[in-house]
Amino acid sequence: MAANAELTETAMRWTLSNASLTITIDKSNGTIVSLIDVADGFDACRPDDENAAMIGGLRVADELTGETFCDLSTESIVTVAEAGPGPDGSQQVVLGKQFQGAQFSARVTYRMEADCLVWLAELSKREGDDRSVRIVFIVPQPSHRLWGPMHDPFIDLQPEQPIMIRHGLGHGRAVASQKRAVPVGLLSFIREQRCMALALPVEVPNVLVRFMNNADEGHLNVSNSLAYAQDQREYFKVSYDLLGLREGRPTRAGVLLSAHDGQWRAAMGWYAERYAKYFQPDPGIRDHDGVYHGGRPFAGEEAEIREQMKGRRERGVRWTELHGQLERELAEFFGTPDAVILGAAYFGGPVYFGVMAEKHHTVYCYENSHSNLFMGAKAAGMDIKTFAHGDLDSLRAQLADHQGPPPVIATDGVYSICGEMAPLAELKELAGQFGAELFVDDAHGVFAVGPTGRGAAELCGLAPGDATVMGSMSKALGCNGGFICGTEELVDACRRSPAAAGSAVPPAPIAAACLAALAIVREEPELRDRLEANTKTFRAGMLDRGFDIPAGDHPIVPIMLGEATLATRMASMMLDEGIYVIGFSYPVVPKAAARIRVQISAAHTPEQLDQCMNAFAKVRKACKK
Description:
Number of domains: 3
CATH architecture of the largest domain: Distorted Sandwich
Largest sheet: 9 strands, antiparallel
Radius of gyration: 27 Å
Number of strands: 32
CATH superfamily of the largest domain: alpha-galactosidase from lactobacil brevis
């Protein structure tokens, strides 16, 4: 893979190069003093510009002691250096480094492959208590024009305007400065007809990574602060946050650098080709085998589907009969007078609270409910009060003290992070006692639980009129879109609300798929029986293997691990075993409560469940070494 990489050496420096990139490293401290695009000789360190000349290096923040150690400012000793061939024909420089006063040691690797530079840092604890650290790569900034795969892809970098772009943890109620996020860990610095890509190596687990210019990486929010005065040189930084440093368990971070013709498309293509198995996963994952709770083979023969859709294509946008039919069948299925479909279940909170806010000024919301509930209530101007997990006494006391128009009680039907059912029967009783409306976001319950698949409300014994239920068609049904079921008056107001009017309904082919999937839910109850059996098998098997799993019956099964880095690492290693699971850590879940969430499907075979459980045991054993 890296046969074209070369290594040269002088008394003071190492130089690594391939066909597109050359980097020079200072032997005394391991800093980057030159980063050249071979195509036109441009040096990203800009040595000829006295106001912009840069070097690159490593910065480590010890969050236990509050100390920061940096190649650019802290005295360090290179304890060992190895330069020579690396894996797969690459050439590399590996440095052992000790920062003065640090209770950890660093191992820094610069590895030049045929298509990119791999820059890695590994920290090992030498003494003291376990701690959290932040590893920051200070990267020479080739240009002020930046592209990233996000909603506003082009950014003009200015020293006086701090920029932070997140990759990793999601923040549902983020403030404006936190909203930039990239789903793919890749940015491109654009210079006319060339670009230099800065990317994250997928094989290095991460919890939260932030890309920044002069933003202060000491704060998760940029807070409009500068890390240096405007007359000093500017850098670009990649910050790996929330890393754990434990006895006998090093922590790693890394970045990739590459140069390309053209602009962002070439860089994106290079990254997708490098990690083809992630962009084009195993066919079993690509075809969604086992992804959805109600997993089932193709809903009908292709010719049958074509016949059903025949003629609709000729009428263009006049496919509304499908949407109307879907709303009628959803209302009939859930036993309500009417239903409205939405482009996504996430619009449920904004639509519902936008309607209710006129007569209901306060909402009592379970503190860990999905962010659409908080976003919707906040946008509607409602007074939001919260109650803790399982603390119904607190909610009862708040309701007893409530003054003003009747409030709304809002909750998830199934707590999606832990797979636990909400106490809907008790909440219904409180709503009746205090004259409140009960609103349930049952995205993870509908079609998956309940005797007939009508969700957590049915499972808890609620009648159709006891609560207003919103749900998702992207979970158990494996389709797309959301819906709200309720009275004709409420649903009609929801249809006319600004939030619903401003969001498109699912396309007609998706509506047709939802109708077909809903028919399966009604006509094939054996799928729910199989889902329940698979869930019991998996939960029992994981408990037998010594894993910590909270009690419950839902096909969302949390594997409790505690450490954020452990959850991220295990999830990555599980993918190498051919199993796709997701790690969750703070602030999505409480600190020290990181977990991997597994979603069981009716489509899973006993052999696949055994494979998954055995893979978990294998990966856990490997992580303990």
